[in-house]
Amino acid sequence: MHTSSLQQNILAELHVELAGTRKVLERVPFEQAEYRPHPKSMTLWQLATHVVNLLAFKTLFVTHDSRDFLDPNAPKPGPTPTSKEELLARFDDYSATLQKELQATDDETLTHNFKLHRGEQVIFDRPKGTAIRLMGLNHSIHHRGQLTVYLRLLDIPVPGLYGPSADEK
């Protein structure tokens, strides 16, 4: 019987999701960066940048034990990318860092808790492996799904993620 570790499972899932996310980001039209489908929605560029910056957030789950949103010295993503090339370069850089940190960790470390909080208000306090899945992968997949809707509304062919899309049939 073959068993794989928590770390190996997360890395395998991450590998698939990163490839799909990059396909979506490659189609984001920078010339329509200010597009938003609704006044309460992020702009296309804010959303695409958020999807990329979430990779650094996932890395925090692996490398740290907590993150306080009120801490002015806490790591923050760099300035907003000013081109699609910059966005994709950041995606590649953050993806490589996340994969490297996950490969350097082990199942034992992934069972230790990560606490996300804003001062005394605890947003969540869960095992790192769970944090990576819930607030990392699932959160990213949610926003990537929003990005595909933006692409559809802008009449840009949507890439297939879990099989062919309507544009690829």
From TrEMBL:
<dbReference type="InterPro" id="IPR007837">
    <property type="entry name" value="DinB"/>
</dbReference>
<dbReference type="InterPro" id="IPR034660">
    <property type="entry name" value="DinB/YfiT-like"/>
</dbReference>
<comment type="similarity">
    <text>Belongs to the DinB family.</text>
</comment>
<protein>
    <submittedName>
        <fullName>DinB family protein</fullName>
    </submittedName>
</protein>
<dbReference type="Pfam" id="PF05163">
    <property type="entry name" value="DinB"/>
</dbReference>
<keyword id="KW-0479">Metal-binding</keyword>
